[in-house]
Write a structure and sequence with these properties.
The complex is a heterodimer of chains A (219) and B (133).
Chain A (H helix, E strand, L loop, with lengths): L1 H8 L1 H28 L3 H4 L2 H12 L5 H5 L1 H20 L1 H11 L8 H24 L1 H4 L4 H21 L5 H18 L7 H19 L6
Chain B lengths: L1 H25 L22 H7 L12 E2 L2 E2 L26 H16 L6 H4 L8
Antiparallel strand pairs in B: 1-2
The chains are: A mainly alpha (219), B mainly alpha (133).
The complex binds protoporphyrin IX containing FE (HEM).
């Protein structure tokens, strides 16, 4: 069992990160290549200034008008995305593992605070699920895949939470946690999770078309 | 008839309960002394020195209580009179880049992985405190 756990905590982490980063890099290359061959005129008005301006505007909470029209949804979305990155990157347990592997470390969140943020993430996921089940205009556009993606994010956080509290079946909870975390990383480039890079491209395109062609704002 | 069955049931439940509390009380775990850390994030690690080393068949004290000089391990010398914290600071230093917690993790986990026995996950060493501990 130790050999298996060592494999998923060692080589498998490398494999997951390689697929995650390599996959995103390849995806970025493919998109740019495709736009260049099929719709090259986009580059005639694409500018760094208008792209970054639009990305920046959409990064400021409640600055774009659309976000103010749905304050509850966007509020949950902002908090969720922030915690989604902050918790795994600044969790003391994850830093302990990195320190053991590379002898480098960085400041960690207080464990109780990380625990609280984990509950916030789980609650946000419940809210997003409920919204897809109840709100008619969203329900209409929802497919099984949307629920599958929410579930894939839920599992590493739920199992991490249960493992941290050593509630039951600690070893199996940990194995499930590690495998589900790695699975989530691996499918990012091949699923809608790739919006972590494509969202910026959409803003660059829209921001440049609105800013540079129509001389309007897109937020 | 029904009353006898009821009594048997109750007695059985009491026996089970007594057994649970009995073993919970007996299950006192020997843990590490964490005095070297200013504050702790986790319950102290489970470690019963002599029982551990007997079970793991570790006769050579220097496997854990080692001595280093000028960046190299000194063979055939041991440091069992010093706690690890005498040389390993809570934070890494110029002379010793291996911080205390990392020294423990590296030492303990690497052997458990090599030997295929012993705990390697956080909660298997830093076991949650049970009531009464
Ligand atoms: C890549 C492989 C991963 C490994 C090896 C790993 C390892 C660990 C370990 C050892 C713990 C501590 C459990 C304990 O206290 O007993 C933990 C906790 C946790 N991990 Fe991971 N993890 C991985 C990926 C992830 C990912 C991808 C996420 C989320 C996206 C994540 C989120 C968490 C959370 C939320 C906790 C619990 C924090 C709390 O409730 O206080 N982990 N992880």
């Amino acid at each position: 069992m130790n050999a298996f756990i060592d494999f998923i905590m060692g080589p498998m982490v490398w494999i997951s990160f390689l697929i995650f980063l390599g996959g995103l890099g390849y995806k970025l290359y493919r998109i740019i290549h495709e736009v260049r061959t099929k719709e090259g005129y986009v580059f005639s008005y694409l500018t760094w200034y208008h792209s970054l301006r639009s990305i920046g505007a959409w990064l400021i909470p409640f600055y774009p008008r659309a976000t103010r029209q749905q304050p509850f949804f966007y509020g949950a979305s902002y908090i969720f995305h922030l915690a989604l990155f902050v918790v795994p990157l600044f969790l003391s347990a994850h830093i302990v593992l990195v320190e053991e592997a590379f002898n480098v470390s960085w400041p960690a969140l207080n464990d109780t605070f990380a625990d609280l943020l984990t509950v916030v993430i789980i609650a946000s996921l419940a809210f997003f699920t409920g919204r897809r089940l109840i709100q008619p205009e969203v329900k209409f556009l929802t497919t099984a895949q949307d629920f599958a993606l929410l579930f894939i994010v839920l599992i590493p956080f739920l199992t991490g939470f249960l493992a941290y509290h050593q509630v039951f079946a600690y070893q199996w909870m940990m194995i499930l946690h590690i495998l589900s975390g790695e699975f989530m990383l691996i499918i990012i480039p091949f699923s809608r999770f790739s919006h972590m890079i494509t969202a910026a491209l959409t803003r660059a395109y829209t921001g440049s078309e609105f800013g540079n062609v129509r001389h309007a704002r897109d937020w | 008839m029904g009353e006898i069955r009821m009594k048997t049931c109750l007695t059985a439940m009491l026996v089970v309960l007594a057994f649970c509390f009995g073993t919970a009380g007996a299950q006192e775990l020997i843990r590490m002394d964490t005095y070297a850390f200013d504050s702790t994030r986790r319950p102290a690690a489970v470690f019963d020195h002599d029982i551990h080393n007997e079970a793991a068949e570790l006769d050579d004290c220097a496997v854990c209580h080692h001595v280093w000089e000028n960046g190299t391990l000194v063979e055939d010398e041991s440091s069992e009179d010093s706690p690890c914290s005498e040389c390993h600071g809570v934070n890494p230093t110029q002379e010793n880049e291996m911080a205390l917690a990392n020294a423990f993790h590296t030492k303990c986990r690497s052997c458990h992985i090599d030997k295929g026995a012993g705990p390697i996950l956080c909660g298997q060493c830093h076991r949650k405190m049970q009531g009464g501990e």
